[in-house]
Amino acid sequence: MERLSFGAAAADYAAHRPDYARDAVRWAVNPAPGTRVLDLGAGTGKLTAVLAATGATVTAVEPDPAMRAELTRALPRVTALAGSAESIPLADGAADAVLAGNALHWFDMTVAGPEIARVLAPGGVLAGLWNVVDDRVAWVAGLARVAGPDVIGPRDTPAAWRDATSGVPGEGSWFGDVERAMFGHGQRRTADALVATLATRAGVLTMPEVRRRMVLDGIRGYLASRPETANGEFTLPMLTCVIRVRRR
Fold first, then answer.
1. 25/57 Cα distance (integer angstroms)
2. For 125-246, where are the alpha helices, taking DSSP H only?
3. Is 184 left (phi over 0), alpha (psi -120 to 50) or beta?
4. Reduced to 3 states, what is the DSSP secondary structure of residue 166?
5. ∠52-23-76 over CA atoms, to 5°?
6. How far apart are CA 127 and CA 129, in angstroms?
7. CA torsion angle for 140, 141, 142, 143 (degrees, to 10)?
8. Band of the pLDDT at 3, cuts 50, 70, 90?
9. What is the sign, positive or negative, of the torsion defined by CA atoms of 190, 192, 198, 200?
10. What percent of the chain clears pLDDT 70, i.e. is strictly above it?
11. Per residue in 120-158, is it b (16+ CB within 10 Å) or e — as a string?
C-alpha cells in the first residue's frame, strides 16, 4: 500500500521533502480556539517544525516507526506518539487544531472523521495542507509531462489538487463548511536534489527498480536540457494548498 511505502525512505524523505509555507500554516490555525496543535500523520516532522516555530504546543502522531524516529531526531522536544488518524492516542478535546501535511488523503474519513472530532475542542480546526508544484510555470509543466502521473500525480499541481480534494474531508456531521486557500512557496534545489526529492514520492517508491531508474533518468535528462535547471541551484516554484474546516 502506498501510504505505508515511506518508512523505507525515511531519511531521504527528511532530507529532501520541502517544508510548508509559513503563511499557509498561520492561515490554517488562525481560527483555532487555542494553541494546542496535533500534527496527524506527521511523517518526519516537516509540518511539525513549522508549527513549533509559531509557538504552538505541538503533538505529533505518526504510525511509521522509521518516520517517527526521524521526527524525534530532528525535533527532540516535540512529543511524538505512535498512532493514526483512525486511532488517535489523545484524550477527548485535547487539541485546538488538527493539521495534516500531505496526509489527509490517506485517512479513512469514515473512521478518522469522528476520531478527529473527538480530540478537537469545540470550535476546533481541522486543516489539510498539500505542497504542489506550480505548473503554471512553463518548465514545471514540462517536468510534470516528462515525470508522468506516478511522480507528479493527482494532488501535485494546483488544478489537479482542487479536483482531487473536492470531496475532502468527506461527508459527516462533524465539521462545517470547507474553506480553501493557496499560498506561494518554493524550494531551493539542484537538478540532482530535485531528482532525489521526486524519488521520495509514493508512486516512485513502489515502482519496480528498473522502471524507477528509467523514470528518474528521464527527469534528470529533462532538467539538464532546461536553462532554468541545468546549472547550479534554482527555486522550484510551488504552492502550499490548504483546506480548513471547523468542528461543529
1. 14
2. 138-147, 158-164, 191-198, 202-205, 209-225
3. beta
4. coil
5. 15
6. 7
7. 50
8. very low
9. negative
10. 96
11. bbeebbbbbbbbbbbbeeebbebbbebbeeebbbebbbb
